[in-house]
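Job type: complex structure
Entries:
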Amino acid sequence: MSFLVLVPTKRVPDTDGVIRVVPGELDVDTSHLSFVINPFDAIAVEEALRLRERRDDVEVVVVGIGGEAYEDELRTALAMGADRAIRVDAAEPLDPWNVAGILAELARRLGPRLVLMGKQAVDDDSAQTGQFLAAQLGWPQATFASRIDDSEHGAEVARETDYGIETLSVTWPAVITADLRLNEPRYASLPGILAARGKPIEEMSLEELGIEIEPRVELVGLQQVSSQRTGRRLENVTELLQCLRENTELF
Amino acid sequence: MHVLVLAEHDGDRLRAGTTAALGFARRLADGDGDQVTCLVLGDSLATVADDAATFGPVLVASHADLAEPLADRWAEVTAGVMRSESADILLGASSTFSRDILGRAGGLLGGAMASDVTGFHRDGGHLVWQRPMYAGAVTASVVLHGNPLIVTVRPTAAEPPERSSPPASITPVEIDLGRLPTSTGHLGLDGRPSHRPDVTEARVVVSGGRGLKTTEDFERLVGGLADRFDGATGSSRALVDAGLAPNDLQVGQTGKVVAPELYIAVGISGAVQHLAGMKNSRVIVAVNSDPHAPIFEVADYGIVGDLYDIVPEMIRQLDAD
């Protein structure tokens, strides 16, 4: 039996894009934005590929949950080297609870030994889905991983915490979420891109999975944030320290 | 309404983020019969429980098997207490601790969760939560559907409550050891010893970015300036990426969020991901050689110039005082 690694990926606006709220709507203007695999999910794809390079029984399956547009990002993951892809057809946006529910059902059907995903998506910044999924499955979790040393029965995982690097052991099956320093994702090579064209993207419906969406998070307002600062330019350090003396209580 | 706040602590005292979350909880639970309880988990908790009790009633779950904050065990106990107390809201400070443990507890409690909340208001019978999205470029207002609600709160969203005298009650919690998961183990914590305060707790934060060339320069200039204020050091993601600063100093969307009295950005261009972590600081100073760097747009004061000239001059003038 192969060691299946499931890698959920989210489609998000490129972080270099300027985010603007559509006036009067509960949405941001996506017309000028390009989309990418959530950067932390790309790190998870990369780590799954490295795991496959270390051991010979690994199969890497990437998952996207959303409309047909997701196929671009799944194709990118296939071009990086993932073995196959699944798109669960669903209307967005979905909150983390419902995404976790879909992933949990996929995990029950596919039997992965590891679900490897980004620690957060850079659009809603919730950082919840991996933990929800681990809880729903009753699996161990290691969040914010910066190093994964796998063995037959589990892994030692270094985690980035506010107080330094914590090392955990987890047994398979497990959920691990990727932090920035885990690796640097590869670019898809030309042969990879060509090979990806021949790889399957399986489509599944929520009905097939027996899932009904039960919203937990309802968006009721969206407001643009702008800076109120004056950005006063000062000529030298003396002037700066004078301003700080007058406007802070630190001296 | 009963709000339960999960304590993040160092074995002796509550962390500053938790005391702020307690302040936020008081604002939520401000009606007759409303209740705020602090839940403290760990091992050998007498000192930290005493500290927590100066803010209000405390529940303590103490056992050797809870000595380390392993998410699966701590979430199991926390969710169990939420159920047995019939609490309405589980609250914690935004931190790697809460994202890990409250996230999992949220998964056990039905997933009605909002992260990094900065405020709330009441609209009819609903609580409406404000939280940043897209690295803080927009603020979303969300209503959560479910019970209980799980919320992590930016430490900058509230002040700690007054300490009361005499302290409130401390009540032990029964732990069902048979239910504790055992498939995760703690192997160690490689803490970075520092004589400086934590970046989220300091009144002054000096952060360095790509303008710094070496680790030694970071320590001498960013660290040196921070020490003049008894402040903390922070860094941009670029500097962490380059291996010049440790990750736990990273300020920004995927790092820590700070709002000190004074934030000095040294050689930081001001990518939106960095601004997400510091733009609510009270006074912001930017030092950068590029006059068009976006950091100047969120700064109160800026000096355009070479940080290798300006920072030593700042240190010299502060020492001369």
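Summary: Chain A touches chain B through 85 residues (CB under 8 Å). The helical segments of chain A are 39-54, 70-80, 96-110, 129-137, 190-197, 206-209, 237-247.
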